[in-house]
Amino acid sequence: MSSTITSGSSDSGPGVRPALRYLLLCLFVLAAFAASLALGSVRLPLHDVAALFTGGRMQHGSSRAILLLFRLPKALTAMTAGAALGLAGLVMQTLFRNPLAGPFILGINSGASLGVALVVLASGGSAGGVLVAGLALSGNLGVAAAASAGSAAVLLLVLAVSRRVQSVMTLLILGLLFSYGVDALTTILINFSAAERIQTYISWTFGSFGGVSWPQYWVLLAAILAGTALTVISIKPLNALLLGEHYAVSMGVSLRPARLILILASALLAGTVTAFCGPIGFLGIAMPHLARALFRTSDHRTLVPSTALLGMLVALVADLIAQVPGSDTILPLNAVTSLIGAPVVGWVILRRREFRGAFGS
Amino acid sequence: MSPETIQSPLLTARGLTVGYHLSGGRTRVVLSNIEIELNRGEVVCLVGANGAGKSTLLRTLAAMQHPLSGRVEVAGADIALLSPKERARVVSVVLTDRFDPGYITVFTLVSLGRNPYTNWAGSLAQEDRLQVDRSLAQVGIEELASRSLPQLSDGERQKAMIARALAQETPLIILDEPTAFLDVTARADIMQVLLDLSRQTGKTVILSTHDLEFALRSADRMMLIMPNGTLKTGAPEDLVLQGSFSEAFRSPNVEFDQNRAQFVLKRGMRGKLRVRGEGRALTWTVHALERIGYTISSDDSAAAPSDSASAPIDSAPPLVSVESAGDGYRWELAVRRSGGPVEHSVYDSIHALADAIRGFG
Questions:
Q1: DSSP secondary structure string, A293-361?
Q2: What percentage of chain B has pLDDT greater than the value 90?
């Protein structure tokens, strides 16, 4: 398999060989991981971070607690969520053959938002437990459950429709219509809600990797691994779908099962992340483009691992920046991913002259 | 291959009706009562007016669309009953679908044709690679293997798509207008490739085309879609002699010239002319006079006695004679105006001659 990747990218011209690119990418991810453990409102020595894994003695007494309780789950959540959103975006872009498609194109985040809005804004009683101010809200189990229920409801609707709809373009438009409809319901809820509850809801929409506890992280990880597995077994149909559905069928792809698995994979990946971290935009749309530009291929045997790695890296870096290391300020994660990520990705994409037309231009 | 398999037809269609299911259980029949029997190694051209149902028929033969009734058998198996994977080993297609797969190399594109044979990840075994290389060689694009798709010309791209179909190792290849959008040389190139590979590999090739001249010169068999929604099949020459072409392409502005096997514009005829001369000069002079709307009376143009030529009688059409002069040609026009003497005039180009003739029209 590694040899096929080499031949698939043999036209990548001058520059770094694919194997080396993977290695560099892994090193960057590792560095970002270490940095996100060491940096934060309090700076921990790298020695203590290393000691966490080697089992050595820590210089600071509080290091172990900070790392185990806060920073490690947060860093792992960022990596898991980043990879998941990237993969979900990749799957949707190929399925819909649309460069603007992302993990939420079928309305999955709208469903999650409505679920959360219902819990936070509408339900008077249970909201008491939910009204933990600020970012601690994300990761709250009630909120996660509400978001899961919301995205699952939209997913079921989409799946039911996709069984009856011939063309993916119709499905895409229906997904958009779902989003608008569901968003409208959320807007109405907001309209009738008290200001402080709206504040709580809004802070959920900022997104955060910080609210996931260890038990929750294992749930998140299990769902993401399942979604990733579904994506990996779909690499072959994904590649065939590069030529469009007719060609894919003519080359032996069973279209309906393949489409179902892809929608399920993307919903699992994006829905779970949204449930635990809030609706995190940008990563899902941009990471596949970044992977195509850096690895100069549309071959999913390369795109799946590279998109996942890039998702991890960018999520870690964005989270680091959102913490504003050394201060107590926390910026909204969504604002950081877009503000910092968009120019970077734009630059990389524009720098590749040949990128023009690299995806359904 | 045993002798029986060579003799038995590769594709048979019995009582085939193709068309579409409309809402409310109604159907729209495009073509009906189709009987087809095609042998191995035949190049079959499907010809018909725009909108006559060429693509619908081809899609039905490739089982990408269900027939309204009747069945299609390829190599003895009803293709409607095959799984997509089994079908992909029997028939491969080149469609008119426009798609943009982005950065994949020609090698990767062609290797997608191995899909029905590869494992879940689509990794290529040694045999698959050999078949991809063979397919590239058969269409003569080995040197393009490591180029990426956006770098190809339209003709090269089409060849790559044909190589991909070859890599599927199917006894039947169906191509929907493979030369549309190509310039003349690329068109001839593609057609030559198709003829060669059918002769060399014994594959049956069905293609739809608007290029009648090519079809008449190269096809072993033609399938002609008639205006009444039936299909006429036969050697091209048989169809010409039966007058099927004139019938198939009946139009107020065009008629099929049965002698030259080409369509000519039915212009408002401006009159008759006699022409004398020989060789290429005669051919192109006739061409020009017909183009500007004159009928050439062939009865006396060749065998007219010289005296009547130099002094045409009143009822005889004007005479154009062409002869070589120096390193070019010279045209002489002899006209008798009503009752007057014969007027002779000489021209040094067809352009000047045509201007003069238009003048007295």
A1: HHHT---HHHHHHHHHHHHHHHHHHHHHHHH-TTSS----HHHHHHHHHHHHHHHHHHH-GGGTTSS--
A2: 40
Q: Pick out chain A residues at pLDDT < 50.
A: 1-15, 125-139, 355-361
Nearest CA in chain A to B117: A252
DSSP state, A138?
Answer: T
A250: nearest CB among B62, B118, B148: B62
Give the integer Cα–Cα distance in Å for A340 and A32. Answer: 16
Is A239 an interface residue toward B (CB < 8 Å)? Answer: yes
User: Structure tokens of B139?
Assistant: 């269409």
Residue A179 is encoded by which pair of tokens?
């989003």
ipTM for the assembly:
0.80
The closest CB to that of A358, out of B102, B109, B120, belongs to: B102
* Cβ neighbours for A172, distance < 8 A, ≥ 6 positions apart: A96, A98, A101, A105, A106
Considering only CB atoms, A243 lies closest to which of B83, B101, B148, namely: B101
Rounded CA-CA distance A238/A241 in Å is 5
Residues in CB range of A167: below 8 A, 6 or more apart: none
- Between 3.30.160, 1.10.10, 3.30.379, 1.25.40, what CATH number should domain B271-360 receive? 3.30.160
Q: Is B335 helix (H, G, I), strand (E, B) or coil?
A: strand
Name which of A239, A251, A357 is nearest B100 (Cβ-Cβ). A357
Q: Model pTM?
A: 0.82
CB–CB contact A251 B112 (8 Å): yes
What angle, 0 to 180 degrees and rounded to 10, lies between the N-to-C axes of helices A141-164 and A108-117?
140
Distance CA B39, CA B45 (A): 13
Show me where the domains of chain B are located: 3-251, 271-360
Instruction: Provide the CATH number for the domain formed by A2-355 in this structure.
Output: 1.10.3470.10
pLDDT value for B292: 83
CA atoms within 13 A on the CB side of B268: 1
Task: Report the gap between the CA of B105 and the closest CA in chain A (Å).
Answer: 6
| Residue type at B273 in one-letter notation | L
- How far is B216 from B126, CA to CA, in rounded Å? 41
Residues of B with CB under 8 A from a CB of A: 62, 64, 83-85, 87-89, 91-93, 95, 97, 99-105, 107-109, 111-113, 115-116, 118, 120-124, 146-148, 150, 168
We find that the CATH architecture of domain B3-251 is 3-Layer(aba) Sandwich (3.40)
User: What residue type is B315 in one-letter code?
Assistant: S
Asked if B115's CB is within 8 angstroms of A253's CB, the reply is yes
Please write the tens of the pLDDT for every residue from B253-272. Answer: 777 777 776 777 766 667 88
Residue range B37-68, pLDDT digits in tens: 999 999 999 998 888 889 999 999 999 889 99
pLDDT for the residue A4: 38
> CB A254 to CB B84 under 8 A?
yes
Rounded CA separation A294/A311 (Å): 13
The domain ranges of chain A are: 2-355
Scan for tokens 């579904």, then name that residue: A230
Are β-strands B43-47 and B204-208 bridged in parallel, bridged antiparallel, or unpaired? Answer: parallel
